[in-house]
Amino acid sequence: MQKPAIKPANPCFSSGPCPKRPGWEPAVLAKALVGRSHRSKPGAARLKAAIDETRAVLGVPADYRIGIVAGSDTGAVEMALWSLLGARGVDVLAWESFGSEWVTDILDVLKVPNARKMVSAYGELPDLTQVDFNNDVVFVWNGTTSGVKLPNGDWIPDDRAGLTICDATSAAFAMPLPWSKLDVTTFSWQKVLGGEGAHGVIILSPRAAERLVTYTPPWPMPKLFRLAKKGKLDEAVFEGATINTPSMLCVEDYLDALRWAAGLGGLDALCKRSQANLAVLDAWVAKTPWVEFLAAKPAERSNTSICLKVVADWFLALSEDAQADFTKKLSALLEAEGVAYDINGYRNAPPGLRIWGGATVEASDLAALTPWLDWAYAELAAKHTGA
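The structure corresponding to this sequence follows.
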């Protein structure tokens, strides 16, 4: 097969850290408050602006609290688990690697009483009709390593007794989130908007805030997780007073991404861009016999972390190690050509490809990528099949 002539203008398709917004350049950080305290008046104002603009773009209700925390999305989820769980039973759902981490935390580390796991294979969702909402419920909205998302929040009742704790790190800013269904929502800057890493965001409903001040967990609480003090919510956290020192460079970068998002038209425009990206790959998969989506059902296919599997008969006859070696070589070949960076599947996922389709990716770059995927596959497949 002849090597394609046109390359993507931006070969960055990593699922985290994700591509920067179109037109980004280091100059956008020129006004960052480097060398200044985050507790100074201008530093605090920048952090408060990040919270306010997050609320505006995502459409977070006015009575929900938004805080900037340490440790990326992982830190934000851990903060929620350690601070809120144990008051009642827990249902924890998992259909990919990160959801499985929360299963481990809840069942094996915190050892929450009356906790049960509901786990499904990569490419599928658990049976959502079996969730007990008298319990707290922990889940990801979008399976970053499986490419499987929740199609909606209709399965979550409004009159639930427990809290819903949602890891939304590869869904926020690309999928509509039904705030009335979510009591805790977390994400990280380096995902959908392509911000720089290490910072997380936690969003609390009034119900979650009430739990924080009426319930004390039975385990010691690390300082980084303390959202309440002496029976009262630490409201300063939700005004921009972070528990530990943030990077003001990262804050400036996030503000730039939020301004870009608002300039496009906000959340609706971001979702449409991401859906257009999925449509490009959907059209290519439909006409390409050697590849399929890992997500079995179209309504559950992620429009951000788009996961693909090789389905050629000769490939399926290989051992799993050999399959993983093939997809690794395919990804490396594309990287060497300067066509696509970091698209090999997640290390714990089935062998395959993972291509980011969030709003910071241009559909034209994905369209340019698909002929290269066919070329790289043909180059490597020939060595196995002799074709």
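The mean pLDDT is 96.
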